[in-house]
Design goal:
The protein is α/β, with parallel strands linked by helices. Helix content is 21%, strand content 19%. The longest helix has 14 residues, at 333-346. The strands form four sheets. It has a six-stranded parallel beta sheet, covered by helices on one side. A five-stranded parallel beta sheet has the order 11-10-12-13-14. The chain has a two-stranded antiparallel sheet with strand order 1-2. Helix 4 (203-211) packs across helix 8.
Length: 362
């Protein structure tokens, strides 16, 4: 793992503006210079850090007294009512009051608006108080996010899977653990894919239609076989490889298809999404196979068959397991509690997102 650079996130905690010059010290492929200077407690594993030459800014003043913060969830995601979790019990985050009671909007420190549930402005609070954070929350890709151009200048914070969000929450991440042996479940099958949203217009379906001409692919989900015990991990764990194909291709859009379906199942992910460069911000370069690594689906199929016969080379894709484990983000308590803790740390700092569409679609 020497020389690797990727984001290994221990805790998603704090927000504060950063100085770009301090982040330019990181390797260029971390895209530090392009960040909007929103910093969460992100730990970057690099060769420099291993040798103790990398220094990170202090993200918050630990001597500051804790304060109570009220976060109002204006729309419960996708209209599903659910019991709100206790941030202290779940994540050891104290001083957070989560509520869906809209009558509390005047006293709320922050209001979270889930993009997919926004109807029209008539349903919004009458005004945004100067000290309030109006947080635009969205974990869908731009391809599945309508009306983005209607929301310029309304929100002063963003929360999404994008690294340059004010509150950055990926679908998953690697975190450090004590060195361990690589233990893999027994693999009796070759290649699996779980898909629920099938469209012949999608790049991933078109690629699959070509790939299946050269290698057998077991398809599960709405358009395939039933999952074993209705469990993705149980099903995919029997396979050596997994097609972690995203439904659309956008910056930082790397979903549970990688973190849960592949990594948690100890299957080598074959990814289709953003560029390899982008994936390597989050995971080691030798932990996955990108479709762009091959000039054609036929060449990819040939390589997978080669790995199937070469146990030593196949196992090398799991070297990361010696030092890291996988966290799959929990929807939605983890998002709410992270937002609450971030609001506590940020104080009165905020910015207005004047061109939401321009940023999110970039």
């Amino acid at each position: 793992m020497r020389g690797e650079s990727f984001l290994s996130i221990e805790r998603l905690r704090c927000w504060r503006p950063c100085k770009r010059s301090r982040w330019r010290a990181l390797k260029s492929r971390l895209l530090a210079a392009s960040l909007t200077c929103t910093v969460l407690a992100v730990f970057v594993v690099t060769q420099d850090l291993i040798h103790g030459t990398m220094h990170f800014p202090l993200l918050w003043d630990s001597s500051s007294p804790p304060r109570q913060v009220t976060v109002l969830i204006w729309y419960e995601p996708f209209g599903k009512r659910r019991r709100l979790g206790d941030c202290h019990i779940l994540f050891n985050v104290s001083g957070c009051q989560l509520t869906t009671n809209r009558s509390m909007y005047q006293e709320a420190d922050a209001i979270i608006f889930h993009h997919r549930d926004i109807g029209d402005y008539n349903d919004f609070p009458l005004r945004r108080y100067s000290s309030q954070k109006w947080i635009w929350m969205n974990f869908e890709s731009p391809s599945h996010s309508n009306w983005l151009r209607s929301f310029g200048g309304i929100f002063n914070w963003t929360m999404s899977y994008r690294v340059d969000s004010d509150i950055f929450i990926p679908y998953g991440y690697l975190y450090s653990r004590k060195r361990a042996k690589i233990v893999l479940p027994r693999k009796r099958k070759l290649l699996a894919w779980v898909i629920s949203n099938w469209s012949e217009d999608h790049d991933r379906v078109q690629y699959y239609n070509q790939l299946r001409n050269y290698i057998d692919i077991d398809v599960y989900g709405r358009f395939g076989m039933d999952l074993k015990d209705d469990n993705i991990i149980k099903t995919v764990s029997e396979y050596k490889f997994y097609l972690a194909f995203e439904n659309s291709l956008h910056t930082d859009y790397i979903t549970e298809k990688l973190w849960r379906n592949a990594f948690k199942s100890s299957a080598v992910p074959i990814v289709m999404g953003p560029s390899r460069y982008n994936y390597e911000m989050f995971i080691p370069r030798n932990s996955f196979i990108h479709v762009d690594d091959f000039s054609s689906p036929r060449k990819l199929a040939m390589y997978l068959k080669f790995l199937d016969k070469n146990t030593h080379l196949y196992r090398s894709y799991f070297t990361w397991k010696k030092r890291y484990d996988v966290h799959v983000t929990s929807f939605w308590d983890e998002h709410y509690c992270t937002a609450c803790e971030t609001v506590k740390s940020a104080g009165n700092q905020f910015r207005t997102v004047s061109d939401l569409a321009g940023w999110f679609e970039s």
